Amino acid sequence: MDNLKGKRKFYAYELSILLILIFFISFFIYTRIVYEENILIGLKKIMESQSILITDFLVVGGISGGFLNAFLILLLNFSIIKILKIKISGIVLASLFTVFGFSFFGKNILNILPIYIGGIIYSKYEGIPFRDIFIRVSFATALAPFISEIAFSTNSFEFSYINGILFGTFIGFIISPLAKKMKSFHEGYNLYNMGFTAGILGTVLNSILKSYGFNVASRKILSTEYDHTIKLICCFIFSIFIIVGFFVNDSSFKGYKALTKDNGLESDFINNYGYGLTFINMGIMGFISLLFPMLFREPLNGPILAGIFTIVGFSAHGKTYLNTIPILIGVAFAGFSGTNFNSFTIVLSGLFGTSLAPISGVFGIFWGIVAGWLHLTVVTTIGSIHGGLNLYNNGFSAGIVAGFMLPILRTLNERAAKKELAFFKKRKEIIKLINNKRVKPNEFKNIEDKL
């Protein structure tokens, strides 16, 4: 495991931040010259748009407006994490990159704020630090389209937006206790637990809105003109991850093989393997996720970009190429064998369907393929019940698939069930050692090997 101390830590972080800042400044200048887009007008259009599935912000505000919106949200969340002094872990990186990805597709700098306000009110009400629930609340912005839909669905802006703020605040207030309860349904085998929670809550809220005559019209707005530019951006970012990770990991890939064998079930790669190997994994998984739409000749757009960056984020919290590729194969198989699936649906479902990676990691490749096949068949029909107002529709579907498969898998796959039981027993012993202060959290990989 790397040791991020002194100059190595300084150079790794400062170099990453400097390169990303230079890149974004250059990118905004480039888009202003090449695409002749007004970046501020583009951002304004994004903030005022209805954001239900599927609204590609690269169409609404152009590529410059779309990336500015994403960059501002990333900066906001990172600043909150630093202010609250939240330790950088696998789930924190997963949150940052998931929200960043969905900033091209449903979330804007305006419609996420009421949910944060609701989270703050909940933390005050319960008497707990906001830092303890911030990551959960940041994921809850999956329901941000509710705010935009209510705020901009009528011409009476002032009244409608006040309603949108109140609605979003209510979502932020109740989402934390709901998420804790919902996780028991899929037991962590769906990495996108908030997607499942948001799906349940979104279904209830959409039903309430419909009963009062508020109907949400479906839409599908996708860009095709920025494919080449987006690919270059992704290659640059993923290369930075691998280079910085290599540098941090004592200029080597040593230990990466062990990381890829992790089953992905509630795995924090930063705690288990260090920053260097985690960054390397994020970069490699970024290139793999970029390859998947290319195999189907599907141009990159806002939603697909969201899927790619979500994989990158969760490559710090459970995803490796060994436990995600079986899911992609299963989704592709379902797409080719079915008759109602186009290439965009297959690609998007495949990228987000990798939330089921722990199933293939624990129960094996075959069941990972089955999970991917089942995911595509479920996700294409489940969105109608929440009206497209839950951006994490695939997380909702994955929760249902995982909850459905688990009892069957434990019955049919006795060997994997015993492996699973041993894993939980081992983790319980590790937690006990940490609680008794006999080991530090970042030491438990070595302890795990001894148990």
Overview of this structure, please?
The protein has 451 residues and is an all-alpha fold. It folds into two domains: 6-211, no CATH class; 252-426, no CATH class. The protein is built from 22 helices and no strands. The longest helix is centred in the middle third of the chain and has 30 residues, at 157-186.
Rg computed from alpha carbons, rounded to a whole number of angstroms = 21 Å
- The ordered H/E elements are HHHHHHHHHHHHHHHHHHHHHH
The fraction of residues assigned to DSSP E strands is: under 5%
N- to C-terminal separation?
19 Å
Give the biggest beta sheet.
none
- Which bin fits the share of residues in helices? over 70%
| Tally of domains | 2
Low-pLDDT stretches are: 441-451
Shape: globular
Number of helices: 22
What class do helices, strands and sheet pairing give? mainly alpha
Count the beta strands: 0
Mean pLDDT figure: 84
What's the short story on this structure?
By secondary structure, the protein is an all-alpha fold. The chain has helices at 6-34, 39-47, 57-60, 62-83, 90-101, 113-126, 134-139, 144-152, 157-186, 193-211, 227-248, 256-260, 269-273, 275-295, 302-314, 321-337, 343-353, 357-363, 365-382, 393-412, 414-435, 444-450.
Task: Give the topology, please.
Elements: H1 6-34, H2 39-47, H3 57-60, H4 62-83, H5 90-101, H6 113-126, H7 134-139, H8 144-152, H9 157-186, H10 193-211, H11 227-248, H12 256-260, H13 269-273, H14 275-295, H15 302-314, H16 321-337, H17 343-353, H18 357-363, H19 365-382, H20 393-412, H21 414-435, H22 444-450
